[in-house]
Write a structure and sequence with these properties.
- Keywords: Membrane, Transmembrane, Transmembrane helix.
- The chain has 37 helices and 7 strands.
- The strands form 3 sheets. A 3-stranded antiparallel β-sheet has the order 1-3-2. Strands 4-5 form a two-stranded antiparallel ribbon.
- The protein is globular, with a radius of gyration of 32 Å.
């Protein structure tokens, strides 16, 4: 066939295939479209697939992930899949259809098309080697921080140096001039859309469910418990995880991680390498760069995304980059619904934390526990026929070092910014990710056996004997991991205790179980408790030589921990009006073992007292079991703090009095610069969390103004009988008295008398307010009802004046 005729035929077939893909909505049509794609790619060489990737592939992405709009064909450059204005994904996407249909045959056919060893990715690999096709990823679908940076004329040029996923991929738009865009090859383009899919779904579902969440503020206990595998038994946990493994997207994610992201040795744990990539030794550096690209893409789409401080502070300072959009993303909650994929992603990457010594196994058990891989021990050059530049070796040395900061901020932002009165399901998923991260000694390759079975299409599952053989705890071999991630075991625990106090009223049983789970992990081993305490002691002591070698060796970790405190919590803060716990020295200190009012022991004791009051108030059939959980929490807290127990509290109040006592048990500890003991507000608590019937920014403004008035009028000071000025008599000479005459002096005297009367009246009002325990509280003016009345009155007045002026004219 003539080359020109062949090109025309290829173009025609690509257009017909794009039309068939666009029309495929039912399982039968999807299966037929997959077969057509498979047949087309098998019958064409890589250099003959240009029309397919220019015309058909963008349409395939639209239908695969369920984006609404169709793709218009283009003969010049491949178009990017457009989205609807709401960035939502429709219900007729192929992945959604596979999940909802529960059809194993359909799932296997789609998976075979998209699998790492499938014909589609094999063709993508071949096309990318020839650099036949480049795509422009739409800026509005990038992670939010990247979108803001690219829109800045000042900092857009430096984004390729700030983040590895943009290195060499940010180009200036040849048409629009100074506008920068992200150009990707086919594999990178596909993975960007693959990473964006759950973000798009989470944003869409979150917006659709806002009204439903507000109507269902109390969520079901059994539904939440089943979603947190850490609370369930081994059998129920396995059934829950088996349900997770049936998620088609999770299955694909694991296959891509397994194929493209090495966790130990490049020649091991790579199922699809020989059948998919067919790389010669000269391409091994590309494998490392591809793995790095994939990991950073998932990190920035899922964990970073809308973070107001997306990159390390020192890195930004070195390039002179500032983020002016912090006012927009300052208190933004991470995208909901990512817990499932993030947990798998984090668990898989933490496999790189396990050291191998014999070169055959990825997990080495010493005294019943795997060992922590010291950062930098990974040496890809030890693999056969592998030559990798040193910068890439260090970057893949341990994926744990890459994920530390973004995962910490992802978890902390979830705890800090979870809105009051909403479902806590998203927090439960993030909590499960955190629990998995701080127990890496329970992670091994055996945890992925069920996922391996779904990827392979076999029926093999993990048995109870397999689970029991893996059930190992902390050992001294993991000391390096704990020290490298110390804030997860200290500072983040304090933030979580603050979250638990704020949401205790939502479901006291579950909140108590969550706190018990965290404290139980910290106290599961005496060695772990001692290590956490010793680091805290060294952190708060002056660096002097001691007779204990272990304490002396811990001093070298202090600079790293202090830098992490400043960097990992950069820009995150709790407001005075959210009712949460904010230790005074934000980003400067550790408070888990502090003895002050903001210390962990005091806050946990207060939490136990509040939880007991809540549980006895609601009683119910599970009261005995819940009180037993409280007793367990007391025992764990006693173990953590060296035998200091929490005394039980008994209640013998009437129901109405009991309800009042529960409401007054917990209040914010500070108002302005005064402690709670010196600022006793009567009536509604001025610093309560912002409710749905208030204007948030007005509430914060009036809270600040009220506190300023109370301080300057000295209402916060105890009444010692000396409030107000002390009056004294002044003798006036007869000559001065005789010279008082004229209207000016008369007006001056009247004004002075009037001012004195107003001052005396104000002093009397202030004294009466102090006597009766009243304080200035302007927060009521922030009520939406009050604001609406004022706005309506203002509009009515303007319209009345305008109408009167019109009548006069």
């Amino acid at each position: 066939m003539h080359p020109h005729s062949y090109a025309v035929d290829s173009l025609s077939k690509s257009q017909d295939l794009a039309a068939a893909i666009l029309a495929a909505a039912t399982p039968a049509q999807i299966s037929s479209a997959c077969a057509s794609i498979d047949s087309f790619l098998h019958s064409h060489l890589p250099d003959q697939c240009r029309h397919f990737f220019s015309l058909t592939f963008p349409t395939l992405i639209c239908k695969l992930f369920g984006f609404d709009d169709a793709v218009s064909s283009s003969s010049s450059s491949p178009p990017s899949p457009p989205l609807s204005s709401s960035s939502s994904s429709s219900s007729n996407g192929w992945i959604d259809t596979v999940i909802s249909s529960n059809d194993p045959d359909l799932a296997n056919k789609v998976f075979a098309l998209l699998a790492p060893d499938g014909v589609l990715l094999s063709s993508i690999s071949a096309v990318d080697r020839l650099s036949l096709v480049k795509y422009v990823f739409p800026n509005e679908r990038l992670p939010e921080w990247a979108r803001f940076v690219l829109s800045s004329e000042k900092d857009s040029w430096v984004i390729s140096d700030l983040c590895p996923i943009f290195k060499g991929r940010v180009k200036e738009d040849s048409i629009k001039g100074s506008v920068y865009q992200v150009q990707l090859n086919v594999f990178e383009y596909y993975m960007f859309w693959f990473a964006y899919y759950p973000v798009c779904r989470g944003n869409n579902e979150n917006s659709d469910n806002n009204s439903v969440v507000k109507r269902n503020r109390r969520f079901k206990l059994e539904n939440w418990v089943s979603s947190i595998s850490a609370f369930s038994s081994s059998s129920s946990r396995r059934s829950s995880e088996h349900k997770t493994e049936c998620n088609f997207y999770v299955r694909l994610l694991y296959a891509y991680l397994h194929a493209f992201v090495p966790v130990s040795d490049l020649n091991s744990h790579q199922r699809y390498r020989s059948s998919l990539l067919h790389y010669s030794p000269s391409y091994d550096a590309s494998i490392i760069m591809q793995a790095e690209f994939l990991v950073y893409a998932f990190i920035h789409f899922w964990l970073v995304d809308n973070d107001s401080s997306p990159l390390p502070v020192d890195l930004c300072k070195s390039f002179g980059v500032t983020f002016p959009f912090r006012s927009v993303l300052g208190e933004t909650l991470p995208t909901a619904g990512l817990g499932e994929v993030v947990k798998l992603f984090v668990k898989y990457l933490n496999l790189s934390s396990v050291v191998q010594e014999d070169g055959n196994e990825n997990v080495e058990y010493s005294n019943g526990s795997p060992r922590w891989r010291t950062p930098g021990l990974f040496d890809a050059s030890k693999s056969r026929n592998v030559t990798v530049p040193s910068p890439y070796v260090r970057s893949v040395g341990s994926w744990n070092l890459t994920i530390q900061r973004p995962l910490y901020r992802f978890t902390l932002r979830t705890f800090l910014f979870c809105p009051m009165g909403t479902s806590i399901k998203n927090v439960s998923d993030v909590f499960s990710v955190w629990i998995s991260y701080i127990e890496p000694w329970r992670i091994s390759l055996d945890d992925f056996l069920d996922l391996d079975a779904t990827v392979d299409g076999s029926t093999k599952t993990t048995t109870k004997e397999d689970l029991s053989s893996q059930d190992c705890g902390y050992s001294p071999y993991w000391q390096g991991y704990v020290l490298s991630n110390y804030l997860y075991y200290s500072s983040l625990v304090m933030h979580f205790i603050g979250f638990a106090h704020r949401f205790l009223h939502a479901d006291v049983e579950i909140i108590v179980q969550m706190v018990l789970k965290v404290i139980s992990i910290l106290t599961q081993s005496k060695e772990l408790v001692d290590l956490i305490k010793m680091v805290d002691c060294v952190f708060h002591s002056k660096q002097t030589g001691t007779g204990k070698p272990l304490l002396n060796s811990l001093y070298r970790y202090l600079p790293s921990i202090r830098e992490q405190l400043k960097d990992w919590e950069d820009g995150l803060s709790e407001t005075d009006a959210d009712g949460s716990f904010l230790h005074e020295n934000w980003n400067k200190d550790l408070h888990l073992f502090s003895c002050g009012e903001d210390g962990g022991q005091q806050l946990l004791q207060l939490f136990i007292l509040r939880a007991e009051a809540e549980l006895q108030a609601i009683s119910g059939d599970n009261l005995a079991q819940n009180l037993q959980c409280i007793d367990s929490l007391k025992a764990q807290v006693s173990c953590l703090y060296g035998g200091h127990t929490v005394k039980p509290v008994s209640f013998s109040l009437e129901p109405k009095q009991q309800q009042q006592a529960r409401d007054d048990i917990f209040k914010p500890r500070r108002v302005g610069s005064h402690t709670l003991a010196n600022v006793k507000y009567k009536g509604d608590w001025m610093k309560r969390p912002i409710s749905d019937d208030e204007v948030a920014w007005l509430a914060k403004l009036f809270v600040w103004l009220s506190d300023w008035l109370n301080e300057n009028l000295r209402i916060n000071q105890p009444d010692n009988g000396q409030l107000g000025p002390t009056w004294s008599y002044v003798e006036v000479s007869r000559d001065d008295a005789d010279n008082v005459c004229g209207s000016a002096e008369t007006v001056k005297a009247v004004l002075c008398a009037l001012g004195s009367w107003i001052l005396m009246l104000g002093t009397t009002v202030v004294r009466l307010m102090k006597k009766h325990g009243l304080r200035v509280n302007l927060r009521i003016l922030a009520s939406k009802k009050v604001v609406m009345v004022l706005l309506l009155y203002a509009v009515f007045s303007i319209l009345r004046k305008a109408f009167g002026h019109f009548r006069r004219v």
